[in-house]
Amino acid sequence: MLRVCKGGKKKYVSLGISVSPNNWDFEKNKPKRNCPNREQIQKAINEQEQKYSEQILEYSVEQREYSSTTLIEAVAPVRKSKTVGDLFNDYIAQLKNEGRLGYALSVQQVHNSLLKFKGHLDIYFSEIDVNWLKAYESWLRCCKLEDNTIGIRFRTLRVVYNLAVIEGIVKADLYPFKKYKVSKLHKETAKRAITKEQVKQVIEYDVSDARLYKKLAVDMFTFSYLMGGINFTDMAFLTDKNIDGGRMVYVRQKTKKLIMLPLQDKAVEIMNRYRSPQRKYIFPILDNRERTPRQIRNRIYDVLANVNGHLEDIGKELGIELKISSYVARHSYATVLKRAGVSTSVISESLGHSSERVTQIYLDCFDNEQVDEAMKNLL
Questions:
Q1: Domain 196-377 has CATH 3.40.47.10
Q2: 3-class state of residue 7 by DSSP
Q3: Is the pTM here over 0.70, yes or no?
Q4: Fewest C-beta in 10 Å: which of 148, 292, 299, 351?
Q5: CA distance 158 to 162
């Protein structure tokens, strides 16, 4: 123990070192010559004494008052180290508070997976080394998971580990992902884009006698394709406030990036078809009822499942081999723009994957005139 005295008050600070009384010289107040690890123990004591001396000198130079308690707190601040489970729970709660429920669910899945793997998460990040990661990978393979699914698990675990480094929970030099490469788990997925001719077939599909959801399915596909590959959740939240002159302006729910695109005539027709003075949202996905974030998410997913079911049927009827969904509109938008001459550095071939975040950053740098000109080639 170090004894810190100030103003007649004494405080004791543990060094976390244990020595047998038989190996301690109580007169000289240091380990005896025959004490095991004597040099290392003495070095640890000297280093701690040096830290306190330097802090006292700093207070003196700055002419700051201090007590034994504030001195100890300055040299050795008390901080409970978070476990892996603690940080996962904190991060999941943060995501939910930010309304990022989809990603929160993804992080929760990794948390649950790790829980099954270890039995508990009362472990520290310093325990997660390359061998630990290899063991987790082997376990996931025994669970019959595909490489891309395993890759998602590891990328999420890496995000949480990075948070631990940022918060000072674990030392950066223990970072295991320098040697364990998550990139090896990525496999190219099947393309989700269809040709411009096939897109036109879906858009021109006759829904004059169809029920509401089948009409909605075609219209949502068409609107997404014409309006920058906007995804279903963002379409659900569109209101008239997102229409500014001849442009659609909105913030993506997923990445929080600002999107500004020129309104296409057919997209305006679709919006006008669904606008209602009784509903603040343009499309009939959400209504004016007060809902919790989870209820909103469930409602959107329910409608999306219905819409995708109709799109799949339409695709089969048209003889399109690829399974049609609202997400196909997003990929097809990117592919058609690329073939129209838009630089790959602006819109990557796989808009939704590889790195959607980087793709969005490129879009931010893409001037409006280029976007406007390129989007004339969509149909």
A1: no
A2: coil
A3: no
A4: 292
A5: 6
